Amino acid sequence: MSYMSTLRAFAVSGALMMPGAAWAQQVEINFYYPVAIGGPVTQIVEDLISRFEAENPDVKVNPIYSGTYSETISKALAAFRAGQPPELAVMLSVDMYTLVDEGAVAPIERFVETDEDRAWLEGFMPVFMSNSQTADQTWGVPFQRGTTVFFWNKNMFEEAGLDPDVGPQNWEEVVEFAGKLTKRDASGNATTWGMQVPSSLTSYWLLQGYVAQNEGKLFELSGDQTYFDSPEVVEALEYWVSLAHEHKVMKPGVIEWATNPKDFFEGKAAMITTTSGNLTNVKNNAPFPFGVQILPEHKKRGAPTSGGNIFIFEGVDAEKQEAAFRFTKWLTSAEQSAEWSIKTGYIAPREDAWETAAMKTYVEEFPEALVPREQIPFMVPELSTYENQRVARVIDDAIEASLTATKTPAQALADAQAEAERILRNYRN
Amino acid sequence: MSKLSRLQSQATPWLLLLPAAVLLATFTHIPAVTTFINSFYTTPRGARPARFVGVEQYQSMLADPVFLAALKNNAIYALGTVPLAIGLSLLMAIIVNSSIRGRALLRMSFFLPTVLPMIAVANIWLFFYTPGYGLFDQILANFGFSSTNWLGSPNTALPSLMLLGIWKEAGFFMIFYLAALQQISPSLAEAAALEGASRWYYFRRIVFPLLMPTTLFVLVNALINSFRLIDHVIVMTRGGPDNASTLLLYYIYNTAFRFWDTAYASALTMVLLAALAAFSFIQFGILDRKVHYK
């Protein structure tokens, strides 16, 4: 809070020095944003804001770095409850139900007036909108979105006698390739694992990929129903667990998000699944040629979306909300969307952003950037329910219990479904 | 003395106490009472205001597997870390109290873990525990052990956190023991030596009883810390895998600030407060009578 009030004090003293007319008209808005990836994100955000302010001299945007995604929603909701919400914040798209249920965010349609506004709102790809809309209203604007992709070490493929330019295309091939790629020392301990899938924190996200490939689904888009114990989900988790326990081609136990790419760089893992946000990281740090592709299929292709939307808060003046909307619209229009995608590695969620000159040049230089986009037709919305963090934790616990062999997948998922049912029961009419 | 000046002399102490009282009330007493009251209501969400439900929150705790796991983990954590940390700190204090070479260096190195912030230490230890190429696995590989997923297996996650806890805490308690050891008059040791008492007998019958007030103080602090310090849980395991390393306070934090179920978190907080109050009562009310003060 004191940081915010200092910022305000600065802004006010700055405004006082300006001529009277500008002071009377300028609207000041606070913008919370988390940083979930590497790179000079703060600098990119501040640069974008200064250009917006140059084009819109009547609006002043205060960028406020707010930690991780979960810290951002904690801070924003605490501020909202205290009656001083930020005008807008970048938060996980899947926290939509939580925010709507709190009455904390405003529907975007309220600010859409002109045809140009409507064209802008309709320009987002449908799959990214499915985590942003409920009750016939749009609550979040797709901003920094991602998916999961598949990486492999080309050198190791050659050593194992595999074609280094072709990754595994289905579940069976993953097992087969991973078997060839797993290396063991004289006493039988693995020195390189064929395949690694991260399983600490938000592991439901990776399970969701397997579930989509198995033609199942984890939840209902209404946000009040989950299908954790359905046969498709159980099979999907059984397949994941079998990589470690039955086929012994994946490190047993829980695999950390952070060490997973590092294991890949160190040659401890030959193939990994991770977020598309790691594309630039792998490009800069892998000391060997690597391949990247969309996730292998089973009954069909499939992968979940992920990432953050921009939300406009209730509980502030209409004039400020309007300024926040103008900033949101500017930040997510084709040009800025393309620029943000190029500089950070997130997927631009608009078709027209991919048509910009800047994006076309970038893709020519770095064709791997097209891989996440190739996956868009197969994407399903990320798990999102009421009390999302709690429900996500329940399914994460079930995955961890299965991977550590504390419970069978069927048992763990049945327990998780019962717990999710207990939580979500209250939200059904 | 006039009425006014008598009033003044009565008001002065209250006025002097006022700043501290206001601070204590604002940040300790009022929140504690509010928490107690909130634990009997549901969490207000948007359109649905809080509703009085009596002891329902406390009842649902008994059916909450994560709460029970957190309680069990915390008991193991306390029982495992407190005696070991105290024993180790006493041993270290005795070593650095004797006149050995490089004593200052040894004292400093024993105390160093205490100076470092827990968050920083946890991040360093995160590397120690990395499977395959972390410090522990690299050392153990020399003896033919295969790589262990220390933080990613339910059997080793909590013990890994406990080891860090002991290492972090022992140095701090050593300082208290060192101060207490230096208070013990050397004439006692001389007298014991004259009587022909062995060093172990001297420690057991003279030094240890004289250290009891310190031991009690350290015990209370160690026990409170075992419930209070969760920074390393957040950094290293986030309570996983499958809640194998979830401690009570971490669960409260998750419930309150990630799940936003503030009412249930209030009820959990009351349980934690009650447990800590009970410990303090046992220690100061019962053990205190058996402690020898000079």
UniProtKB/TrEMBL annotation, chain A:
<dbReference type="InterPro" id="IPR006059">
    <property type="entry name" value="SBP"/>
</dbReference>
<dbReference type="InterPro" id="IPR050490">
    <property type="entry name" value="Bact_solute-bd_prot1"/>
</dbReference>
<feature type="signal peptide">
    <location>
        <begin position="1"/>
        <end position="24"/>
    </location>
</feature>
<comment type="similarity">
    <text>Belongs to the bacterial solute-binding protein 1 family.</text>
</comment>
<keyword id="KW-0732">Signal</keyword>
<protein>
    <submittedName>
        <fullName>ABC transporter substrate-binding protein</fullName>
    </submittedName>
</protein>
<dbReference type="GO" id="GO:0042597">
    <property type="term" value="C:periplasmic space"/>
</dbReference>
<keyword id="KW-0574">Periplasm</keyword>
<dbReference type="Pfam" id="PF13416">
    <property type="entry name" value="SBP_bac_8"/>
</dbReference>
